[in-house]
Amino acid sequence: MAGVPMDQREGWIWFDGQMVPWGDAKIHVLTHGLHYASCVFEGQRAYGGEVFKLREHTNRLIQSGQTLDFTIPYSADEIDEACRQVLAKNNLVDAYMRPVAWRGSEELSVPGRNNKVHLAIASWVWPSYFSVEEKLKGIRLEWSKWKRPSPETIPCTAKAAGLYMICTLSKDAAMANGFADALMLDYRGYVAEATGANVFFVKGDEIHTPTPDCFLNGITRQTAIGLAKENGYKVIERHIKPEELSKFDECFLTGTAAELTPVSQVSEFTFKPAKACTTLINAYTEAVTPKKVAAE
Q1: Residue 229: CB partners within 8 Å, gap ≥ 6?
Q2: For the chain, which domains are there?
Q3: N or C: lower Cβ tally within 10 Å for the chain?
Q4: Lowest-confidence segment of 81-85, 136-140, 290-294 by average pLDDT
């Protein structure tokens, strides 16, 4: 269904406890979440009919809502089951999934406490964030002019819709300049993340990655760190200055949509995807593939 607008697709969406036809999953234009970004979401993938690290994603969704001072009116078990029902109802096996929770349209002003909290879950076939050709040769990034703010100014531990405004601006600008994505610095000038993925740098058997103290500590990021350690790499989480990029040989991004994507260029710095990228792509592919239970 590539090229079909999101609101014109076919299928079923779980909406406040009910399966509704895709085109009927609508909200009012005066919804609080639309005007004041009182909205949190998850991005997760199903492989072989199973959502990878489903409970971790569900827990983060609930915690993100709590960080924005609202409670999603469903338990983690209920949300997990709804995710499974969405896959089954839409006959999906390998798919992307988007749970989203937001404050409704009871009132429209800055305070949001009197607004009902809604939850919807949609899923569709969405291939890798970047094309196979881009992945094999490594994607190109440019520096974003926007910076990740101080954690004193944003709820940086939440996967909240409002935090992605500068991501959209950065990625659109990068694509207009012929790049696949943008790499953002933080408010101190350290390397932070790409617009929808965390970043890693490789030198020999060491993998360096920015400390997630003002941006989301991605679930895929955490998975990649575990896999790197299992494969003999020393993982160092620290503040990284942009000029240090000249010292690294490989670079890659991690995220649910991006999965594990090698990078060949960040503005004036170049990298060559090699052993570390190949090893970790293979390890990640194995990790997300459901294991078949041997017959007795």
Answers
A1: 235
A2: 10-124 (3.30.470.10), 132-288 (3.20.10.10)
A3: C
A4: 290-294
